[in-house]
Amino acid sequence: MNVTHYPSHEQWPGLMLRAATVTSDARAAVADIIVNVRQHGDEALRDYARRFDNVELGSLVVSDEEIAQAAELVSDDLKHSIKQAKANIEAFHQAQRMHDIEVETMPGVTCTQRAVPITSVGLYVPGGNSPLFSTVLMLAVPARVAGCKRVVMCTPARRDGTVHPAILYTAALCGVDAVYKVGGAQAIAAMAVGTETIGAVSKIFGPGNRWVMEAKMQVSSAGVAIDMPAGPSEVLIIADEHAEASHVASDFLSQAEHGPDSQSMLLTTSLELAQQLPEVIEELLNRLPRREMMEKSLSHSHIIVLQSDEEMMEFSNAYAPEHLIINHEKACELAQKVENAGSVFLGPYSPESAGDYASGTNHTLPTSGYATAYSGVNLDSFIKKITFQRLTQEGIKGLAHTVMTMAEAEDLMAHRLAVEVRVGPYGAIG
After folding, report:
1. How far apart are CA 84 and CA 90, in angstroms?
2. Quick check: 66 and 161 in contact, CB under 8 A?
3. Hey, which residues are catalytic here?
4. What angle, 0 to 180 degrees and rounded to 10, lies between the N-to-C axes of helices 393-409 and 413-423?
5. Helix (H, G, I), strand (E, B), or coil: what is residue 327?
6. Helix 210-220 vs helix 184-193: angle between axes, to the nearest 10 degrees?
7. Residue 102 phi, psi dihedral angles, 5° rounding
8. CA separation (Å) from 373 to 12, 113, 204, 314, 319?
């Protein structure tokens, strides 16, 4: 693990580098996958499943029988936990509902905004290192709260051709219309361009590795909307001398087990915490599986000692973390200074795990610095806002001079004419 004491501002950009980069070769490979899926449809998807997932697939669609069997394999305890998490996520996203806005901007001119759900959405649920049934909750629940008419999901099959039972149980619980056994960049391509089995969607949601992230970026430039660039996961922790080293270490490790490209960062003003942390991480790491993968993540993680709370907040806002944990005596005060972050966890008893599963906020968040401009998934992500305007005779007459003058100044005389014929000497209004 990398430990840096009091770096200069000139050193900050180097410390903020993420591990994951998409090479030109990867971009070309993803582009080829999209073209192949467009040209060969289901056949290409089965070929990629054979090559990348070592599985021979018949039907790409998860059957009703498979979903029923999956429900039998999920324990009652896990079902109860999933339902509790669903209730919390539903409550938080229900509260985000927008009411129509109607404003009379001047006499006779009424402007309205109405929220309308996106008709068809596709959800991507990773299945590489872990069966992320929690991601099903984070995507399908707000899609249904928003009122999307068609909600489909892609997730990779296991080597026996099945999908993890908890993923299927959660998909059924949340009202997903269809689940397809397709993973990776090819799943994004299938939802974007459509195949014989998988109909194209209007917007694609979900996290994934660098290949999935690159596929989302490429299809978004070809007319299919995406939620955000969401790639390898990351956490930045701001901690003071009051923070328990075991809390910080466990947050590092919970991030590291997302994958070898994940990154954990600690900013602290406490030399003692910075010195303690590697030893405590090592002690906790010995209790956990997946050590080799987690060590890869930790190898490009950082412990950084800074001079002040102000400097920590400046660094954090520049890094723009996906997850920000403020384990600090003045957590709520520092929270007021957060400008760039996907989701923020305040105080010593708010681990990232709570938001990843069941507090109610969404865990599909912008990574790689995109939190400077993107929000995490929320109800708005599944909604379009359509504006309407209605002008009466009084309204068009009152606005006519302004519109005609502006249109003429832009040399758009047909725009001017559209008003003039309504209010001029030959129009409906004299």
Report:
1. 10
2. no
3. 322-323
4. 150
5. strand
6. 20
7. -135, 125
8. 20, 23, 18, 17, 12
Scan for tokens 């966890």, then name that residue.
Answer: 345
> Could you tell me if 95 and 193 are in contact, meaning their C-beta atoms sit under 8 angstroms apart?
no
Q: How far is CA 80 from CA 84, 85, 157, 200, 363, in A?
A: 6, 9, 25, 34, 20
Residue 184 host element (H or E): helix 184-193
CA distance 270 to 267: 9
Distance, in Å, from the CA atom of 98 to the CA atom of 281, rounded to the nearest integer, reads 44
Helix pair 271-285, 291-299: axis angle to 10 deg: 160
How far apart CA 424 and CA 347 sit, in angstroms, is 66
Residue-wise pLDDT tens for the chain (430 aa)? Answer: 799 999 999 999 999 998 766 678 889 999 999 999 999 999 999 999 999 999 999 999 999 999 999 999 999 999 999 999 999 999 999 999 989 999 999 999 999 999 999 999 999 999 866 789 999 999 999 999 999 999 999 999 999 999 999 999 999 999 999 999 999 999 999 999 999 999 999 999 998 888 998 999 999 988 899 999 877 889 999 999 999 999 999 999 999 998 888 999 999 999 999 999 999 999 999 999 889 999 999 999 999 999 999 999 999 999 999 999 999 999 999 999 999 999 999 999 999 999 999 999 999 999 999 999 999 999 999 999 999 999 999 999 999 999 999 999 999 999 999 999 999 775 555 5
Taking alpha carbons only, the member of 163, 207, 155 closest to residue 183 is 155
**DSSP classification of residue 100:** P
Side chain identity, residue 394: E
> pTM for the full model?
0.93
Largest CA distance in the chain: 87
Radius of gyration of the chain, Cα coordinates, nearest whole angstrom = 25
